[in-house]
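Loading example: each entry is read as two labelled lines plus one structure line.
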Amino acid sequence: MTRISLTVDGVTYEEEVEPRLLLVHLLRDRLGKTGTPIGCDTGNCGACTVILDGRSVKSCSVLAVQADGSDVVTIEGLSGVDGRHPMQEAFHQEHALQCGYCTPGMIMAAIDLLKDDPDPSDEAIRHGLEGNLCRCTGYCNIVRAVRRGAQSMSSPEVVSGI
Amino acid sequence: MIPATFDYVRPSSLSEAVSVLADAGEEAKVLSGGQSLLPLLRLRLAYPSVLVDVGRLAELHGIRDEDGHITIGATTTHDEVVRSPIVNAECPLVALATATVADPAVRHRGTFGGSLAHGDPAGDLPAVALALDMEFVVHSASGERVVAARDFFLDYLETALEPGEILAAVRVPKLGVGWGFHYEKFHRTAQSWAIVGVAAAVRLSGDPGGTGRRVEEARVGLTNMGPTPVRATQVESAAAGIELNGSLAPYGGSAANGSGTAGGANGSGRHAGNSTGAALREAAAAAAEGTSPTGDLHATPDYRRHLARVLTHRALLSAAATV
């Protein structure tokens, strides 16, 4: 067992972990962060995307021991005291989900994309989300939602958490 | 799935890392970003006894502009390579190809050296390494050695790295002025491997926009056309000496986007029908010579050979158009 310390959604945890424990299993099974789903288990689908030290990663492709000392933000860490994060609200408003399984990963990838490109074109959005698969084929609404989320996040009254 | 058990070591220096590896023997694996290794562990296709995590070693990280070449530390992430002003200025082909590796989240974790050390012929970087004659700086407990790209890729997922050795850095020669580059990749989704990819570099004589331009030198590396990346040497010699006249743009004006489009693999019709296009197509016709592509769910060997010819033509045109 290896002792690690990491911050998840603003809370610091000390955990004894097996080296083979994946970050996504740590989040879900040990810390109860079940908002991050496991999709494909092969690194393809992006459903388990979280923000690790400021950038999007697939948490099924990171060992928990590799995240030692790191800062992790999951979908559960987005909403503040005043409700949904603007990107969550945009997905809600644009009906950017059907089954919803890909949604946490889509939202985390979208927020990551906006760090480089606060006002992305539809093409840039599609490129930025190319690591995230939606099998309900709701991509049109997802692209609309990211555009809407980008607009609300850039408006002055919104202060983003991450 | 959950990986089989292994021990985990995170050395604090390169010398400690090679010493741990020397003691661990053949069952040890080096871990950096883990974007190739962790899927293998999860699918239980690999059973290392110990993972040596070099992902945080500063001495293996970063991009340096040096005399005659740039040095890319093995643990530099794909994302850092794509953003690097040095890489974009001195060896843009590396940035072009790296930008097509998987997707943003994988590029945030995956590393330049890890991708090369993995030695997958379907990966995008090995063909680029071959085309640019990169050099691999390898460390072990007995010191440092440098391996040329042509001697590095031995077989499917097999490289010249011996047990106990770590790829520390890769040197990319600066090619100088007059070169144009393109990476043409044919794949189904961002995360899937290239069905075939072509890395092309061409050096032209004459002034941009002027007449009498000529291909002086061409370098072509092929992705996924055999158990190792392949240099298309016959294409290289056939392309040298081709006179350029008329439009080089393969897609009616824009040669900027390297992503393959599934509808256009017939190799004709969409390219400029001028003599330059025809001459480069003739040169590209030799692209599959000497290759031994595999057949799988995505493509038969014959289809891969066809793609190699078509994509090489596109890559040469696009590379020439960027000079």
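Chain B touches chain A at residues 1-8, 10, 31, 34-35, 38-39, 41-43, 51, 53, 55, 79, 102-106, 108-109, 189-192 (CB under 8 Å).
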